[in-house]
Amino acid sequence: MIVNMSEAATEEQINHIIDRVREAGYQPHVTRGTTRTIVAAVGSGRRHEIEALRVAPGVEDVVQIAQPFKLVSRQVKPHRSVIDVGGVKIGDDAVVVIAGPCSVESREQLFSTAHAVKKAGASMLRGGAYKPRTSPYDFQGLGVEALKILREAREETGLPIVTEVMSTEDVDLICEHADMLQVGARNMQNFALLRRLATIEKPVLLKRGPSATVKEWLLAAEYLLSGGNHDVVLCERGIKTFETETRNTMDLAAVALARELSHLPVIADPSHGTGRQSLIAAVSRAAIAVGADGLIVEVHPCPERALSDGVQSLDFAQFEQVMQGVSEPLRKIARPRMEEVVLRAQA
Ligand code: PEP
Ligand code: MN
User: Fold this and answer.
1) Starting at the edge strand that comes first in sequence, how are the strands of the sheet with 27-32 ordered?
2) Ligand 1 atom with the shortest distance to the CA of 309
3) Residue from 165, 207, 251 to probe ligand 1 pocket by mutation (most atoms less than 8 Å from CB)
4) pLDDT digit string (tens) for 6-64?
5) What is the number of the ligand closest to the CA of 188?
6) pTM (2 d.p.)
7) Residue 298 C-alpha to ligand 2 middle, in angstroms?
8) Looking at the domain that runs over 83-346, which CATH code has it been given?
9) Alpha-carbon dihedral of residues 323, 326, 332, 338, nearest 10 degrees?
10) Ranges of each domain in the chain
11) What is the architecture of the domain spanning 2-63?
């Protein structure tokens, strides 16, 4: 349930509602907008007590939260969230491009990629240290060694780092090295991992599971927010369909829908979304056109030699071309303004 305070509500009236929400057995979550305050009653409690607050002083209305996800919902927080990752703002006006290799393979490979993607205009660096591979015989990542290389690359280039965390055991170590922790598609519903990441003070990049609905994806994000971590960025990376020509089916409608339903920033991963070098530029432009707040793209100095995901990785020249395609004028024209998104709060 949401208690919408009136524009004229006093601080005392707001505090009274917060207390009453708690007394009714719910957790109060307060969003202070420029003109009005919203108090969300989250969890399970005595609903009739919240409904009765309709007549409390300073209250304009009490409405049901329409979706099963609450804190993630635009109803609870109508204004878009901007997530700060080591000084880079995701969800603000600029489209943020994160680039780097699928896996960190060596110091030289990561450093040359970091310099190249920075020069081309990327503002964050990606690189896997712990790799979720379909086959146990495939390269599994360099682990701690890769984390150290990533950290050095950040020190040298200033690019904040995002890297995947696969297990609760690795969370503390990865937090020491990275600016943002990625939950990979295969772990989207690893609830123990989500609960643990809800307690950290680093932002989380939450990829959509290959067979997850948008609702399941947003509920996975709800685990993070309800556990205390509000710094969450969603990432569409393609889903499984009957199509076999692309590695996954890039669901661009889901980018627009997630931004409509949630205040969290949404970025797109055209590399895993298509699995094909040749499609990355077009799908990057399309993702921005539907409102993506950023892109995450795999780049390798020599894709044919990559230890993972070479066929979908761009070389430096190809990445530069992608960056030119998503240049500032396109980003400004194509990005739908937030006001275009109709809020469908249910009375
Ligand atoms: C990756 O980013 O390299 C990766 C493994 O992504 P996903 O979890 O989307 O497959
Ligand atoms: Mn990859």
Assistant:
1) 27-32, 37-42, 2-5, 59-63
2) 3
3) 207
4) 999 999 999 999 999 999 999 999 999 888 899 999 999 999 999 999 999 999 999 99
5) 1
6) 0.93
7) 7
8) 3.20.20.70
9) -110
10) 2-63, 83-346
11) 2-Layer Sandwich (3.30)
